[in-house]
Specification:
Length: 403
């Protein structure tokens, strides 16, 4: 949590996805997205392409609007986790390459082909099943190959890659466009594990080259890799959390100037007076020790505002911090406002963002919850409408931007 003046916003107007007014809103600044993309590009060689990771509904920011905006900014490659996420982008008109980073099951392959999604192949059996469907295609179907180098998840071992590329599926039905791995500890304090993963990955590349084969797109770097491990950049990188304004758990002076996109606000529903000994919320988990005023907020864990914030988190009202008291409920949260004068129903409460000189970030909520900003952002529920502040006229749009 920090105290700093709000930054200037060069924004045009808002587009709301909500059909009716809501007391709780997530406002997303698309100009901040453009700024963060510029920060990512500043760290890369001119020849290095960008695949924007928009899985998990763009980390809670709305994958369709985020992807459309990134398309305007020159991005032509997107990463999702599931076939369903990829289909949602296609149905929204996203025409760029969509790489499915997660598992693909046999019953999903027809939909994957029907929507032109690119799978990450992680074993021979998967390649064989894809090849069966690809034989009806006029051109070889594009796939990426996932190498397991130390994450302990999906992938082939480095020594299996050449054998896969020389197998029947890749002699006609399938074409390997990309080779990838995922870094497990790129944001950790000790680089040795990441360096070992990159070395294992390079061994697969060396074996491919020795076999007289080639794969045009080579990618390992997530946000932490982009920031801290330039040797992981190769020909493509996969920024995720950086695009949404937060660094991974990496310290030091290598963190660029990122701007969080999302501001989460709600509205005071009622102000109540408590006498000493009065209790608040389930299990009487807060007891007033003095005359106390509390504000009731219409947001709870069903909206993704974690129950673990009970009696430990803060919100901002009138530019002042107000402590959460009692259990966070499914639909409501109570905060103490005894020292904040003139609180009344209808006042704005900021849960993530700036108000006056005060600021609460998703990183602050993560610290109070014992988790990471990724989870805080992804948890914001679908009943919280997203409102978008559009790109300002000063923002350079694609084409001509490196993708």
């Amino acid at each position: 949590m920090s105290l700093s003046p709000p930054s200037a916003q060069n924004l045009t107007h808002c587009v709301s996805l909500s059909a009716s007014p809501s007391p709780t809103v997530a406002t997303i600044d698309l100009s901040a997205l453009a700024h963060n993309l510029t920060q990512v590009r500043s760290l890369l060689a001119d020849t290095c392409q960008i695949l924007a990771v928009v899985k998990a509904d763009a980390y809670g920011h709305g994958a369709v609007v985020i992807s459309r905006t990134l398309t305007q900014l020159g991005i032509t490659r997107f990463g999702v986790s599931t076939v369903q996420e990829g289909i949602a982008l296609r149905e929204a008109g996203i025409r760029g390459s969509v790489l499915v980073l997660g598992a693909v099951f046999p019953n999903q392959i027809p939909d994957l082909f029907a929507h032109g999604l690119t799978p990450a192949v992680y074993d021979l059996d998967m390649a064989l099943k894809l090849a069966q469907h690809a034989r009806s295609q006029q051109e070889p179907y594009v796939v990426h190959i996932k190498v397991e180098t130390g994450m302990g998840r999906l992938g082939l071992s480095p020594d299996e890659v050449v054998r896969l590329l020389q197998s029947p599926p890749f002699k006609g039905p399938l074409r390997a466009e990309g080779l990838m791995t995922h870094l497990a500890d790129a944001d950790g304090p000790y680089p040795a594990y990441t360096q070992a993963q990159i070395a294992r990955f390079r061994s697969a590349l060396s074996q491919i080259e020795a076999a007289g084969l080639s794969v045009p797109l080579v990618h390992t770097a997530n946000s932490a890799g982009i920031l801290l491990h330039p040797s992981s950049h190769f020909t493509l990188v996969r920024p995720g959390i950086m695009l949404y304004g937060y660094p991974p758990d990496a310290g030091g002076n290598q963190i660029p100037n990122l701007k969080p996109l999302l501001m989460l606000t709600t509205t005071v529903a009622q102000v109540r007076a408590l006498a000493p000994g009065d209790h608040v919320s389930y299990n009487c988990s807060y007891t007033a020790t003095r005359p106390t005023r509390i504000a009731v907020l219409p947001i709870g864990y069903a909206d993704g505002y974690s129950r673990s914030l009970s009696n430990r988190g803060y919100v901002m009202i009138k530019g002042r911090l107000a402590r959460i008291v009692g259990r966070v409920c499914m639909d409501m949260t109570m905060v103490e406002v005894t020292e904040i004068p003139d609180i009344k129903p209808g006042d704005e409460a900021v849960l993530i963002g700036q108000q006056g000189a005060a600021q609460i970030s998703a990183s602050d909520l993560a610290a109070w919850q014992g988790t990471i900003p990724y989870e805080v952002l992804c948890a914001i529920g679908t009943r919280v409408p997203r409102v978008y502040r559009e790109l300002g006229p000063h923002v350079e749009h694609g084409p001509g931007s490196r993708s």
